[in-house]
Amino acid sequence: MKRYRNGDIWDFENEMSVNGDGVEVILGLDGGTTSTVCICMPIMPFSHNLPDPLPVLARAVAGCSNHNSVGETAARQTLEEVMAEALSKSGSNRFAVKAVCLAVSGVNHPTDQERILNWLRDIFPTHVKLFVQNDAVAALASGTLGKLHGCVLIAGTGTISYGFTEDGREARAAGAGPILGDLGSGYGIAAQALTAVVKAHDGRGPLTMLTSSILSILELSSPDELIGWTYADPSWARIAALVPVVVSCAEAGDPVANKILLVSVQELAESVKAVVQRLGLSGEDGKNYFPLVMVGGVLEANKRWDIGKEVINCISKDYPGVRPIRPKVEPAMGAALLAWNFLMKEADEKFDS
Amino acid sequence: MKRYRNGDIWDFENEMSVNGDGVEVILGLDGGTTSTVCICMPIMPFSHNLPDPLPVLARAVAGCSNHNSVGETAARQTLEEVMAEALSKSGSNRFAVKAVCLAVSGVNHPTDQERILNWLRDIFPTHVKLFVQNDAVAALASGTLGKLHGCVLIAGTGTISYGFTEDGREARAAGAGPILGDLGSGYGIAAQALTAVVKAHDGRGPLTMLTSSILSILELSSPDELIGWTYADPSWARIAALVPVVVSCAEAGDPVANKILLVSVQELAESVKAVVQRLGLSGEDGKNYFPLVMVGGVLEANKRWDIGKEVINCISKDYPGVRPIRPKVEPAMGAALLAWNFLMKEADEKFDS
């Protein structure tokens, strides 16, 4: 366990009575490409009936912790600081922690998981249970209140589908980023819209309302200037921010914008169906009930052109048992509930044996 | 005109007899994303019959000079150094230069052109004629030996179509880079292949030979590792280097690879047709002869699956007058010939008036 490393991150622990009030806590982290949230939750009695609202001792927010985006050192620093801040704010410390669930984007391979676990082991006392997951798993848990069953579809700047069976098998689809074909993501939608403007301008595609709408919002005077704008800073979130323009144009009846959204719906539905199919989530006859947690700006209700609703329509043609859930708590809480569920399961197993 | 700035770039001029042998020269530059080439050519007598081979006093090579890729300062430094090296090697200096044609990738807008012209004016004596073009224009001139008429299709790491009419109108299509839809480029082909591997792996797409071929050449053990590989260094050329794998798989009968190449052919042909259509290059009945200069690794003859040949087949269905040209000289020579042609035209006009 680290003491006094990384400057004064953990200094606050020396200035308090260790484990003063005896409250044991869980840390749930949601680390994304835009921001990182850490929730400090008191351990609730093990029960399948959860209190409403869920108890929270403290919440801390920091910047990006995707190691693919900001590099490993910066990502770790951010994660360590945001955990220290949440513990400090809740008047607690590392000895009071029973479990940590770290759900971060960019965890795509068991080696990513192992690397982060090793580093967490260096920070926390040995009795602390540690879990590392892709951030999609926390998003699923935020909809199912900690239970790993069903599928989650995230469509924000990026997109991914992730699913679990009750017996612990898991599968994912998409989530490989813009270069590797995530056309359904916010980035994918916006890049297709920018491409449509370029094609209309150079004669390869039909004229579209997207041209005037996008140029006006970016304060550019000609589609030629889009090239410079795009490559000046190809940050995914900056490009994805154009999604509302595409939705407005589709709502106003522009066929090019409409087609882009239809492609996006198709891609998003395909990624969910691939997961459902591989895991057999809908049972043998394809009609079993399964939860589909839906998260992210692209899926949020639009005025008339509702991407999320169209995605569900498309999935339910093949899988009528799909039950969409829009989570009421944030993914960091999902991560905390996940850790709490693991602890409860472990206690059950001990009791049974 | 600069003296003694930028360290010792132009120092060699002080150590020689100025304009010793009286040979007037032209500089032709081809500045790409991978390398920059400068040709120093003696002024040939004005005539429409060119000597074969074309005379070259010196040739110098340097790294990337695309300002979008390496930044403006580095791009300028590279261009200035490569010009100084070509002049120094040819025993000449800036006073002997009659004209410079700088053809660089990343020139997409009149403001790009003006910025570079201003900077060239600072380097050369006032009598020197200066021309700044997109590098596609030099590629066209390398096929037409300096005449700006017809269309050029470049398909290497990136792709662009560029055309000119005899009365000086010009048009381009594509060339907006990978984010803005250049599916026909080497990068576009390779990114589609990587996407196909990810989709086959997560159940969204059919199995393909591309999986084993790409994993083996990249020495990876699972498609999950492709995500890390891709974003570790998303340099366009590194991704485009996978094109030969896609061609091999298509030649071996893989339907997924085959479809990717067909999409690429379609996209490349569309970009040429858009230029031909806008400029009316094929005349009113659509049957007039026009040259199509074809440049870049993607268009070079493959064993059985010949992308370049398929692109021509596709174009000639609409425009039977298309006459493909594979240039025998390099684009830097095209740039030099372009400058020489401008000078000849100017001399003609003076003579006429």
TrEMBL record, chains A, B:
Its EC number is 2.7.1.59. CDD domains: ASKHA_NBD_DdNAGK-like. GO terms for molecular function: N-acetylglucosamine kinase activity. Residues 27-339 form the ATPase BadF/BadG/BcrA/BcrD type domain. It comes from the Eukaryota. Belongs to the eukaryotic-type N-acetylglucosamine kinase family. This is N-acetyl-D-glucosamine kinase.
